[in-house]
Amino acid sequence: MKNPGPPGDLFLASTSSARKALMDGLGLPYRTEAPGVDEHVPAQLSALEAVAMLAVRKARAVHERHPDAWVLGADQLVEVEGTTLGKPHDRDAARAQLGRLLGHTHAIHTGVCLVGPGGHLTQAVETTHLTFFPLPPEELERYLDTGEWEGCAGSYRVEGQGQALLAKLEGDRTNVQGLPMLPVVRLLRQAGFAFFARP
Question: What residues form the catalytic site here (predicted)?
Answer without folding.
Answer: 75
